[in-house]
Each structure stands twice: as structure tokens, then as C-alpha cells.
Amino acid sequence: MIKSKNNTRILWTSIVLTTVLWFITFVIHPFNFWMMMSANTLILSIIAFVFGKPSIKTDKLLKSILLGLIYALALYLVFWVGNKLLVIFSNLFPQILSNRMGHLDSIYGNRGNLSPWIISALLFFPIGFGEEFFWRGFIQKELSGKFSPFYGFVLTTLIYTAVHVPTLNPILILAAFVCGLFWGALYWKTKSLFPIILSHMLWDPLIFVLLPIY
Asked: What CA–CA distance (Å, rounded) separates 69 from 161?
């Protein structure tokens, strides 16, 4: 747990760094998206390991693996239902969400840069692993210790959502908010990081490559 003011500055500096990395990757996009995301999450994993030392140990491995699978499928179902609702909403209020498919295409458009198998592997590790290891295992854990578990959950969800705001893609921002709520709430309630990390590692290739939602 971070104690000193100096290490608290490291916490907030890492959040600023993440914001910059996400802006470069999603907005400026100077290099291959998947290589950049892989590099980003490796950097974040190192920061979390050095300064936060998140624990992903579990005494009940099979149960944790099963929970990770259930969490991943549950979140996929949430997005499947959410997409159906967005379709209805965009039909009822086309002036508010007039370019739903365009926003989705911009999210899925990067899949053509590499083979699906390579993208799935990168989404599994280091991307899926690194995001949860950093956001829940480091940021939420430290903010929960600095404030309270509830406020740590709320702040982490808001920050996790905010780093996606510069994309100006309302569907991506909403997706980040839902994911932040889902994984953040699980970590707040269970304090068990391993199933949450695994669920992110499984959910990413499921929704981006294997069974994309349109």
C-alpha cells in the first residue's frame, strides 16, 4: 500500500501517464494500435508491480478460474443486451446517436492490422492482464486505502472512463464506464483480483475477435 506523499505522487503521475498513452494510442495513433496497446499495458503492469505489488494469488484455483469465466460471460451478456438497447435508442432518437455503426466501426476497425489469432493473443496477454493488474490491482487498491473502498471504486471507475473521453467516441466511452463499473464493483466486493484479471483476459478476445457485437 502506498504510504508517503512521494508515492502518492507516483500514483497520480501514473494516472496522468496512462491518460497520455491512451491519447497517443487512440487519437494520434502513430503506430500499429495493437503493438501500442501491448506496450502500454506492459508499462502499466511494471508500474503496478513496482509501486503497488498487487496480489493475484488464490487458494482456490479452480473456483477462481470458474469465476473468471462466469464474469467474462456475464459482461459479454451485459454488452449484448446493451447493444440491443442502443439499437432501439438510436432508432427512437436518431439525432442523439445518429452514427452508432460508425462509432462501432471505429472500435473494431483496428482488427484488420494483424491476424485474428495474434490480436486475440495480445488481448489475452498483455492487454487484458495489464489493464486489470494496473486499474484494479494498483489504482483502485491504492485509492481505496487512501479514501475508502467505496470511494476507491467510484474514483477508479470515473478515471478509467475519463481516459477514453478524448476519443470522442460515445460508445467507447460508455463501454469503458460499464467495464469500470463491472470490474470495479467486483473488486470492491470480493477483493479477489485473480478472477477479475482472468475475466478481462477472456472477455477481450471474445468481444473483439471471436464474437463481436454490432
From this structure: 24
- The end-to-end CA distance of the chain, in Å, is 41
What cell does 44 get? Answer: 502499466
Q: How far apart are the C-alpha atoms of 98 and 109, rounded to whole Å?
A: 19
Burial label, 72 (beta-carbon count in 10 A; 0-12, 13-18, 19+) = buried
pTM of the model: 0.95
Between helix 5-23 and helix 33-51 the angle, nearest 10°, is: 170
Please, what's the largest Cα pairwise distance for the chain? 52
In this predicted model, what pLDDT tens digit does every residue of 1-19 receive, in sequence order?
445 567 789 999 999 999 9
- Burial of 12-46, coded b for 16+ CB within 10 Å and e otherwise, reads eebbeebbebbeebbeeeeeebbebbbbbbebbbe
pLDDT digits (tens, 9 = 90+) for 72-129: 999 999 999 999 999 998 888 888 778 888 989 988 988 777 899 999 999 999 999 9
